[in-house]
Amino acid sequence: MKLTELLRADRVVIPLEQRTLPDAVWNLVERLAATGVVKEPESLRARIVEGRGEDLAVHSDRAFIAHYRTEAAQQLGIALGISSEPIARDAPDGDARDQSARIVVVLLAPPRMAARYLQALGAFSRVLSRPGVAELILAVHSGEELLALRVLSEVELAPQLSVREIMTDSPQTTHADTLLRDAARDLVRSGVGALPVVEADGMLVGMLSERELMRHMLSLASLHGSSARPHTAFERARRTVRDVMTRQVLCVSPDQPLAEVASLMTNKDVDRVPVVDEGRLVGFLTRRDIVRKLIGS
Of 36, 75, 87, 233, which one has the fewest beta carbons inside 10 Å? Predict the structure, then answer.
């Protein structure tokens, strides 16, 4: 399928007159509602205003892509707007560097269309990352002219990806008998937020994440006062990963479709999952891995 098959001229807004990103996104959502994509657009307003980082792909000074999988969407729909002036995003901590653009894209899809949603998001992200494409889009004056752009009409949606294609091979791990203080140090240095816990033969037996460490810290008497049972320095020093890790781990297979796993991670609100084959750890997959693949970095 070509990218332009997902676009319609009546879902292109030129010029986009809103001066803030939430207002511009809302304008495009209303256009999608007017053309039958969204049943209850108001249900998205709070999420749009919140401006979650996971809902927005920023392409330097070229474009914003706001993307939402939502029950409010009846089908997959894409709207695109072009502003005469750069629209700024209120970035976290007031950092607005490279956070303005004249092109705004909104992609909506129902949860059941996770695969097509990821394919469309990836296609738009890749084409907007190409040098010169943004300039070609900014030069058009109508939806018809946009759909006629060869650079868009030649873009095909990528085939469905599997977990194996983007997972991290041979991820950093820890062992159940490792001293907790040592594992915690490795966890912080890894920067991934969690370490799979494996046996010598590679069998996955648990997960040590920042969440488990936080629970452990909150259990200490120093944070609970006299109501908690005391822990001596000696006892704390002898704690191992086995004492703290969780044994209830959401795992995925390397051959599962990426769209299916991305949907599962979103619904279960997990940031990372170990990839196992017959119980043995073969990889690690994070939300960041998926986003990086989508934007082609």
Answer: 233
